[in-house]
Design goal:
Elements (H helix, E strand, L loop, with lengths): L6 H41 L2 H16 L6 H14 L4 H4 L5 E5 L6 E4 L3 E5 H4 L5 H16 L2 H4 L3 H13 L3 H5 L1 H9 L5 H19 L7 H8 L5 H6 L3 H15 L16
Parallel strand pairs: 1-3
Antiparallel strand pairs: 2-3
Helix pairs in contact: 1-8, 6-11, 11-14, 12-14
């Protein structure tokens, strides 16, 4: 009579449980590494010196400057931006000189890029009906600069590489990340928290400039009605209906006053 040991069958469940434990530990380690990497990059962004940002801007901004149109529209946009700059907290005015680059394309979008440049596309300008509405958009982009969101939009790997390059004194790396940076900027998607902070900043500047915040939600109201024709803006920003609700909530919380809007300067009318 033959005899079969039951030992092997008893070990099978134990082996399976060991594999599950090993896989769980591995996945937990991967998640931990990703979290630590994100924390590292976020920490770096908060301490990145202005000199490093200027160096990055020096290689990225010229790409957009070639597309920009030196025109009455660009001049007027910069005059409006100057008015907002004068309302910035002192620490954000120091060493910072912001500039609008006006690009004559039908894209409906506005972008903050390294080098303190705000990109305004003609397509966006055609949607705007008042000065206040436009100033809210410009103030929102200044909010991204204030919170350094424009650097976060480049992606963790790019930020880490350029920080290492800066401290090693390797200028060649800056040129090598141009293509990656431009792609990251064009596809940038800010978190809801980042957008809310930028909207809050824009409202603050709007109130300081006009003494009230009329027009702050007008642009987003229009977008919500024309969503199919504004895919560029919607791809990189939260849903406009939710945006309007959040802005109205901020207006109520901060007890901002609503008055009348100012007409757009003639050079910006389409």
């Amino acid at each position: 009579m033959s005899y079969h040991s039951p030992q092997s069958s008893k070990n099978e469940p134990e082996s399976n449980s060991q594999i599950i434990v090993i896989i769980s530990i591995f996945l937990a380690a991967v998640i931990l590494v990703i979290l630590l990497f994100n924390l590292l990059v976020n920490g770096l962004i908060s301490i990145i010196p202005l000199e490093l940002e200027q160096k990055l801007g020096a290689v990225i901004a010229p790409i957009y400057e070639k597309q920009a149109l030196d025109s009455p529209q660009q001049t007027t946009l910069n005059q409006l931006l100057d008015r907002l700059e004068n309302k910035l907290p002192p620490e954000q005015q120091e060493h910072n000189q912001y500039q609008v680059l006006y690009i004559p394309e039908d894209t409906v979008n506005a972008i903050a890029i390294p080098g303190n440049k705000v990109i305004i596309y003609q397509g966006l300008l055609k949607k705007v009906d008042s000065e206040n509405e436009l100033m809210m958009i410009l103030g929102h982009e200044l909010g991204h600069f204030a919170h350094r969101d424009h650097l976060r939009s480049l992606g963790n790997v790019v930020v880490l590489r350029m920080t290492i390059a800066y401290f090693l004194g390797d200028a060649s790396i800056f040129k090598s990340i141009i293509a990656t940076s431009i792609k990251a900027i064009s596809q940038a998607q800010y978190s809801q928290k980042q957008e809310k902070q930028a909207d809050q900043f824009g409202l603050m500047l709007l109130d300081k400039t006009y003494g009230q915040v009329a027009g702050s939600t007008d642009f987003f109201h229009k977008l919500s009605k024309e969503q199919k024709s504004n895919l560029d803006f919607l791809a990189s920003h939260p849903a406009p209906e939710k945006r309007v609700k959040e802005i109205n909530k901020l207006i109520k919380e901060n007890k901002y006053r609503l008055g009348s809007v100012t007409l757009l300067p003639k050079t910006l009318n389409y």
